[in-house]
Design brief:
By secondary structure, the protein is α/β, with parallel strands linked by helices. The chain contains 26 helices and 20 strands. Helix 1 packs antiparallel against helix 6.
Length: 866
């Protein structure tokens, strides 16, 4: 079965077999073309040097320019016919026909050389170029029809890499082979015969492979008319009909003009170095090998980056590399070995520019016009190549040195790069930011396949940092449009930036208009992201989800996908340590996991269920943190006990290290959960009521102390209030981990610092933060209200009177028969049921009988959207 213009990310195996056969065929075709050229060029140099008696011997002095023109001319003359062939007939038949034609033409050239008829061989080379003209739109169009949209960037990149490798191989093999045979005493005619015979036989392989490629249907029924021969301007008009195709085509043509100029420059530099002697073929092959290796290297990088989609941001990046490489060529003497290095750099920049542009043209072409448009692209490429030949001939005739030629070429590259950066700044900035994100953050993605490949989708993620949008953009398989408050567009610093990324402006004051704008974006088929919390979390805990997204989803009739981002808390872009940005990173790189939930139908999505799913995804991601696979990495850390019975503390620590890996993992996981909320700060000095915290000292007093590098003051419940006060002042205690007795001493002594009560009492005093411990696990913690420093300036509660604090991240919440049930990696295979307690919309653990703050009601999981 042939897949045509598909969006499927996994083409059938048969399509991939056909694609790889196409690569073999076009690689062998490119090898033969370049091999023939690089047999004729040194042969022409030899004929001129030896002044062999042939017609127009003087023209052999310019054989490289003659053959360059011969390559380009058929693309200009026969491009419309090639496009018509590709559209009118099956592209598979076109490919097979060109394989037959190649074999015939190579026999033609071999016979001509055997009879020492150089101009007949040049005419055969012209026909070889005609064969390439017909093949080009057929093979390029066939790639899209076999592979589809999603893998097109990779497939197109591999196509270009194969061409370059084959061209490189043709140049090197024939260059060295011809030079070696000439050095052995054979004349120029005999030196070329054996290589020609071998490549002619090799063309049979391409012919055989062409019949393995599966047949694709033709895309048009247009009959041949003589006017087709003169449709050059019509083809160019098709290229110009769409702005995206036009600029991609111009960029690709610029590359071929640049590559053609470098190619001719390499030949002329080799002539100057060898003075046209026997080593000319080898020297020119080495210089072009360097450029070709650079193109292969850049092509491999571009193909890797484009493996999940076409990345146009590589275009200005490639231009920058081309400028640097060309300037380096200008600054290097032609005899220097470094010249080859700079040819590599210049070639790699060209490939970075070419591959996404070629893939973009193939992707945007309408199927019924693909052959015509790609033929027009070939025409434009060849006009650029011909222009490069003319410019090079003129500059050489004027005596301009290669140094200044390369300076001029670098200036042209600079202008082109500057222009592309201006017309596609969002692509360039997105790639730059995405690269920085991936450098500083190691992102793992869960269930990305749950995002539908087409149609409107509303993403509903948690919101914890200023870079959430960039994280989501980096991992989502589709482009995301974000809903942004319109006030951001008026900001002189943020406004220009958010406009680049096709964001959707909404207004808090005009809610109806905001709903309409968001709905229209979804109905257009976009992936739209809204942060249901409406603000950044400054506690580390997911805030209440507002219901606006429910209305948007129902109005647009599109599914909602819950999304969880785990591991960001602690980044400099979060409110961890009570401020954004201005702090040192805890570690680089930072591990993050992003999980996508199942699509929920619009009529079944509600704020409570979506938040519950985000919480579950977050718990799933939390369980995959790398540190949990090696709990001893935390449990082996040094503990700094400033005061107290260090021996008892050490014995308790040693007992943890004797536990099983599973038990250690659960303890460390719970310690990390405590660090995921904005309560205790790293490197704090803490006073611990040791004997009152026996029910949680493994987690709180040991593992968490090690994880956050806390300094410890150990006291017992019978410690006097005066002694507690003295120790608090002496060691400048920041936080108190207390049972009931230490709470009393803390209150009576009016001590500085926060007091966290783990005795099981709910919050009754604004300065004593109630926490809940069940089955040796910290379930929830109260904390100070975080300062309101976000753009929306909304208050967030760190504590709630009568509650036991906010549920720690990393727990999955279930509701069975009206009872709250908690699961997670810190609990293990079982679950915990906080009897008589419930969870409210802001994730506070409250009494299930609290009348003024009812618990949320979790409905059954919503079915998956079709």
């Amino acid at each position: 079965m042939v897949i045509r213009d598909m969006n499927d990310s996994n083409p059938p195996k048969r399509n991939w077999v056909s694609y790889w056969c196409l690569l073999i065929l076009q690689g062998q075709n490119a090898f033969n073309d370049k091999a023939a050229q690089f047999l004729l060029v040194p042969m022409g140099v030899w004929l001129f040097k030896e002044q062999v008696d042939i017609p127009m011997i003087g023209a052999m002095k310019y054989i490289e320019y003659i053959l360059a023109a011969v390559i380009v001319l058929p693309f200009i003359l026969f491009s419309p016919i090639a496009g018509w062939f590709s559209d009118r007939f099956s592209k598979t038949h076109v490919v097979r026909g060109t394989a037959v034609l190649q074999l015939i033409v190579l026999l033609w050239i071999a016979v001509a050389i055997h009879h020492q008829q150089i101009w007949i061989a040049v005419a055969g080379f012209f026909m070889l170029s005609v064969q390439s003209v017909i093949l080009s739109p057929g093979k390029r169009g066939l790639v899209k029809e076999l592979i589809g949209h999603e893998k097109l960037g990779f497939a197109s990149g591999m196509l270009e890499i194969t061409v370059v490798i084959s061209i490189c191989g043709g140049q090197i093999v024939t260059g060295f082979w011809y030079t070696a045979r000439l050095a052995s005493g054979l004349d120029g005619w005999a030196s070329a015969m054996l290589p020609l015979q071998v490549i002619t036989l090799a063309s049979v392989v391409a012919l055989v492979v062409s019949f393995i490629i599966q047949k694709v249907p033709s895309q048009g029924r247009r009959p041949f008319r003589p006017c087709i021969i003169f449709e050059h301007f019509s083809q160019m008009g098709e290229l110009w009909s769409t702005r995206a195709i036009k600029f991609s085509a111009i960029g690709a043509a610029f590359f071929w003009g640049y590559a053609g100029y470098l190619n001719l420059a390499a030949i002329n530099i080799a002539k100057q170095i060898t003075k046209g002697g026997d080593g000319f073929a080898q020297e020119s092959a080495m210089l072009m090998l360097a450029a070709s290796f650079g193109i292969v290297l850049g092509g491999a990088v571009a193909s890797f980056i484009c493996r999940k989609g076409i990345e146009l941001a590589l275009v200005p990046v490639g231009g920058i590399v081309m400028v640097i490489g060309t300037l380096a060529l200008a600054a290097t003497p032609i005899e220097s070995y470094w010249l080859r290095v700079w040819f590599v750099l210049a070639g790699s920049g060209g490939a970075l520019l070419l591959i996404p542009l070629n893939a973009n043209v193939q992707d945007l072409c309408p199927p019924q016009k693909r052959g015509k448009i790609l033929a027009g692209l070939n025409l434009l490429d060849c006009l650029a190549g011909l222009f490069a030949v003319v410019i090079q001939v003129l500059l050489v005739a004027m005596g301009v040195s290669f140094k200044w030629q390369f300076v001029g070429l670098a200036f042209v590259c600079f202008l082109a790069t500057n222009y592309t950066a201006k017309i596609m700044p969002q692509h360039f900035i997105r790639l730059l930011v995405s690269s920085l994100i991936r450098f500083f953050y190691r992102i793992k993605v869960l269930h990305a396949d749950r995002v539908p490949k087409s149609g409107g989708v509303l993403l509903a993620p948690n919101h914890v940092s200023y870079i959430d949008a960039f994280i989501l953009s980096a991992v989502c398989p589709r482009k995301i449009r974000f809903l942004i408050f319109d006030e951001c567009f008026k900001n002189p610093w943020i406004g220009p930036f958010v406009r680049l990324f096709d964001t959707v402006p909404i207004s808090e004051n005009r809610s109806r208009e905001a709903l309409r704008v968001a709905t229209e974006a979804l109905q257009e088929g976009s992936v739209v992201c809204i942060f249901p919390e409406g603000q950044l979390s400054r506690t580390g805990v997911i805030n209440e989800f507002r219901r606006g997204f429910e209305i948007i989803a129902r109005m647009a009739d599109c599914p909602v996908i819950p999304v969880a981002m785990d591991g960001l808390w602690g980044s400099i872009f979060t409110f961890e340590r009570n401020h954004f940005i201005y702090k040192w990173p805890i570690r680089i790189p930072y591990g993050i996991t992003v999980g996508f939930g199942q699509p929920i139908p619009p009529n079944m999505s509600n704020a409570a269920d979506v938040k519950s799913e985000v919480t579950s995804l977050s718990a799933e991601a939390f369980a995959l943190r790398k540190i949990l696979a090696r709990p001893l990495k935390i449990l082996n850390r040094k503990i700094n006990v400033l005061h107290g019975n260090a021996k008892v503390y050490a014995e308790a620590h040693a007992s943890i290290r004797k536990l099983t890996i599973t038990e250690q993992t659960q303890i460390v996981a719970n310690a990390i959960q405590i660090g995921e909320v904005n309560a205790i700060q790293r490197n704090d000095t803490v006073m611990i009521e040791w004997d009152a915290l026996q029910h949680c000292h493994n987690v709180l007093a040991i593992a968490f102390v090690q994880y956050f590098n806390l300094k410890v003051i150990l006291v017992d419940s019978d410690e006097s209030p005066n002694e507690i006060k003295k120790l608090g002042v002496k060691y400048s205690v920041d936080q108190y981990f207390s049972g009931e007795n230490l709470v009393t001493s803390w209150r009576s002594g009016h001590l500085h610092g926060g007091c966290y009560d783990f005795s099981g009492n709910p919050m009754t005093n604004e300065c004593v933060y109630a926490c809940l411990v069940i089955s040796e696990r910290i379930i929830s913690m109260s904390m100070p209200h975080p300062a309101a420093r976000t753009a929306t300036n909304q208050h967030q509660d760190g504590y709630l009177m009568g509650a036991w604090g906010r549920l720690l991240p990393g727990y999955r919440v279930e509701c069975e028969s009206g009872k709250l049930r908690l699961c997670g990696v810190s609990i293990g295979e079982g679950f915990i049921e906080p009897n008589g307690k419930a969870l409210n919309a802001d994730a506070f653990i409250i009494s299930s009988s609290t009348p003024d703050d009812p618990a949320i009601s979790l409905s059954k999981p919503a079915p998956i959207a079709d």
